[in-house]
Structure formats: C-alpha cells, structure tokens
Amino acid sequence: MAAVQPHQLAYFLAVAETGSFTRGARRAGVVQSAVSAAVTQLERELGAELFERHYHRVSLTAEGEALLPRARDVLTALDAAREAVAGARGELVGTVRLGTISFTGPLDLAGLLRSFAARHPRVEVHLRQTTSGTATSLDDLRSGALDLALVSTPADGLPGVALTEIHREPLVLVCGRDHPLASAERVGIGQLAGEPFIDFPTGWGNRAVIDHAFASAGVTRAIRTEVTDFALARTLVEHGLGLSIFPAGAVDGPADGPVARVPIRESPEWTIKLARPAPRREGTAATALARAVLDAARA
C-alpha cells in the first residue's frame, strides 16, 4: 500500500469543511479533478469510503469522521516542522486560517493583511468570512478548522477558546426617516414592542446581545426578516419594511440620510474579540498574525 500523502489529507479536509468537491477544490486552489482523484486514492489506500456522495453535497462517513481530527493533527504537525526549520534560519513560514465576521468596526482588516504579507511573505493567510455568524467560527476554531477568528460575542470566556476584546461600540436603533421614533433623542426597549424587526440569524453576535437585551426588558420582539448583510438590512429599513439594530459604526451615510440612528436607553454594546484556541498549541505564524491584529486594534 502506498503511503498517504499530505496533499491527499489537505484535499480531504477542504472537501470535508466545505461539504463539496467543487468548493473544496476552490479552497485548495486546484482543479476539481485533482481533488477527486486525490480523495479517491486516499480512500483506496485506507480501504474505506470517507464521503457519502449526494447529488449536490457530500457528507462524511463514520470512517471520514474518525479521520478528520487525525488529518488536522498530521497537517498541523507538518506545519510545525516547517516552522521549526524556517525559524532556525530566522524566517517565518506557515499557513494561518483566519475567520472573520462581516463587519470589523474600525479595524482595517485589508490593510492589516497587506502589511502582514509584506513583512512575512512566506506566510499564507487564508481568510474566511462567516455567513453563519460567530457561533460557527467558534466551532471551527475548537475543531481546528480555523487558527484564529474575529468574533462578536458578549461572553468573557468560552470553553476551548481564549478571547481578547479589541473593540466595543454601542448598538443603535435604525429606522426609516418617516418613522415616529426617528426624531426621538433616545428610545427604550419597551417602546419597541410590536414593531416588525429586520435582524440577523441566531448565532450572530449582535443577535445574541439584542435578544438578551429584549429578554431582560421582558419585551417580545417580532422578527419578520432575517438577513446576513448590513447593506440589505439597511435597504429594507429604508423602504419601511421594519426596524433594525446595528453597531453604530455600521450605519453609514449622512446623518440626515434616509435612515435615522437612535440611541437605545439601555445602552446595549457590540464587541469584537480575537478568538484563539485554548489549550491547543498555536503555531508561530498564527501567533505573529494574532499579535498584528492586537497591535492594529490598539493603534
């Protein structure tokens, strides 16, 4: 039996984490046929089917589930070996998988990554923006699918994760300019009972803060629409289809524009935190990127 090759495990992971050979190939940066061939060869060498192939998706078999953490361990160990050899020469190499939320407040993530790439050209940063919210990024961090993540959570600590706050800002009510609350100096949560809301899915950090604030006030919220994009939510608000609650910095446009920003009396706050795995060992490249994120946040 031929030896299992690192690229086979890498392609297996890409398919497992994306649920698709097409998306897995896109993540790996190769053609789909190369991924399919590598996974098929891996299955032949291990004597087991690793995926159940469905029409539009794939899912792991029991054997695939058993291989998944071991494959991550092997690839992590190989990265650590490369880092150690490069470190002996005074170089920084490796791959860092960074998860991010869609809005990062004042943190210039693109500028940060550009500067980091200039300083460390042999480090590959794979940026993954979540469309499922902070809860998914935290799960991926714990499983090893991510090395670092920018998340939004009110929690100070979570199992398997170390959190460092890098930004905090108030949440504000966003409503159409012709809404009765648009001219209010401040609004209390009790005043929002019965209003139709445009919100973000369960699992998003801002949704968790807002749900908690309403529950604490004993107010039931009518969520009519769920979206995963601030721009779309704003457009729906502009057209009078409901109210929303945004981080203050996410409400762009002039103060006298088509939407009004109204402070909330209870002062709920939205936070961004850098999440790192704990107690899992962190690679030197991931440590360097984490330091760059924290430095940029303090600047």
Automatic annotation (TrEMBL):
The keyword Transcription applies. Keywords: DNA-binding, Transcription, Transcription regulation. The keyword Membrane does not apply. Pfam families: HTH_1, LysR_substrate. GO terms for cellular component: cytosol. GO terms for molecular function: DNA binding; DNA-binding transcription factor activity. SUPFAM superfamilies: Periplasmic binding protein-like II (SSF53850), Winged helix' DNA-binding domain (SSF46785). InterPro entries: HTH-type_LysR_regulators, LysR_HTH_N, LysR_subst-bd, WH-like_DNA-bd_sf, WH_DNA-bd_sf. Residues 4-61 form the HTH lysR-type domain. It comes from the Bacteria. PANTHER family: BLR3139 PROTEIN, HTH-TYPE TRANSCRIPTIONAL REGULATOR YBHD. Belongs to the LysR transcriptional regulatory family. This is Transcriptional regulator, LysR family.
